[in-house]
Amino acid sequence: MTTDPIADYLTRVRNAIMAKHKVVEIPASNIKKEITKILKDKGYILSFKFEDDGKQGTIKIALKYDPKTRVSAIKNLTRVSKPGLRKYAGIDEMPRVLNGLGIAVLSTSKGIMTDKEARKENVGGEVLCYVY
To answer: Taking a C-beta distance cutoff of 8 angstroms, is the pair 33, 19 a contact?
Structure first.
């Protein structure tokens, strides 16, 4: 059992990108499913599939690369809020990743969303990770 499943998720994706894998399998949870949906909506991954095996289930993520240069769409995945040190952001101090080019994934009272969606909904929350 891992103490930080979101960091494990990000590390698995990061390692798969560095090894140039096309698909990565990750143990599923509701938070990981929501983060995966956000990555798909924002164009950082090609597709994903949730497989239910009766127990925990897995998430299969098809990673996105440039067809000519084989450079990943995801340049950096950074975990911000850790179990030992939680980071929260109110609506007035919402982070901007690469001056708006990247996304910050937040856990808010209205669910998991990006920093732009949180500004639109006028809510703050725990900053889970940065993606660019």
So the answer is: no
User: How far is 17 from 23, CA to CA, in rounded Å?
Assistant: 9
The phi, psi pair for 23, rounded to 5°, reads -130, 145
Angle between helices 30-41 and 5-18 (to 10 degrees): 40
Q: Alpha helix locations (H) across 82-126?
A: 115-121
Q: What is the pLDDT of residue 54?
A: 85
Residue 114 pLDDT greater than 80, yes or no: yes
38: its two tokens: 């956000």
Global pTM reads: 0.93
**1 pLDDT higher than 70:** no
Torsion over CA: 60, 65, 71, 77 (sign): negative
Please report, as a single letter, which amino acid is at residue 17: I
Measured from the Cβ of residue 128, the count of other Cβ atoms closer than 10 Å reads 23
